[in-house]
């Protein structure tokens, strides 16, 4: 039986956040006429989920925002990720407060932007299970060995099912639709300007303060602040790469369209998958979407990030593994029963200490960075964007304590 979406109600945390935003707006409204006519000019570099969320919350708070993206909004990982959201999976680590705040902001944004309809936001049940690959894919009607815990469409050789998330603690969005819905709202309602171009550098005054952003071809965009949200491409930006390392983890995925999408219930699957040839298990993930698609991902490894996100292609052998995974999980996902809509790969931005880098770049006033979210970028985009907006406009973030994420932690061990 399909899960139903619980009513989206504001938590006490979000009510306090909204009250604070209203209070901040009230304070800004009594600033001088001169200040009101000259809002803070911020250039956000990067059109992925982190950059778009930052642009959204900055512009909603009154800043004049220009978003610069080399290719197109959500063209890389933010368009090819799974879109899985978890409230408490980061508990006990440095991401805990960020994840909690962001999970709740996702729910609030879904209310505001009609996320259930516009970008596939929905709570869902999440299961862990073991699948031993069979050389003969399941036939329609063959039952799973896991009993009634498994949804009927999971009819392959699955066993040991275990609930690891409920509709109160796990949810999903279609990441590309989410990111583009947010930038559309920011453009239409808050005046964000989107510029397609390659960022060549950041102009800094003799006093060490940001003055502008310089694009390929010579265009200069004057600014009071810049936010570098370039994902794994931060590692190719000299201003940042000289201070810390950001590298790319190449992850593969396929998108399937079953002939009977109504049979696929909202259950996210995290697998321990044992290949038929033996060896160590792999850990692919399966996310049905309310659009009728089923997203299957996994098979990741560190790789060189290309200059152009449009140049990223998947490894055919790894794509074939994901197709075998799908066909062994469900007869609805095997060849002939499902159309392969996409075979793709993307790069997840990672740091050496596995902690995102969010904050002002030491030594350059008004220059900020937000990157390194690895596989949790879609989840943590909203809270990162909201915190960055507070940091840029108010000098400190209150929605999340950013101390642990500060790029200042790398000072004293700059890269050569």
Automatic annotation (TrEMBL):
Where do the FAD dependent oxidoreductase domain residues begin and end?
41-391
Provide the alphabetized UniProt keywords: Oxidoreductase
Q: Which GO terms describe its molecular function?
A: oxidoreductase activity
Enumerate the transmembrane spans: none
Q: Which GO terms describe its cellular component?
A: cytoplasm
Comp. bias regions, Low complexity: 136-152
Pfam families linked:
DAO (PF01266)
Region described as Disordered: 133-170
What name goes with this protein? FAD dependent oxidoreductase domain-containing protein
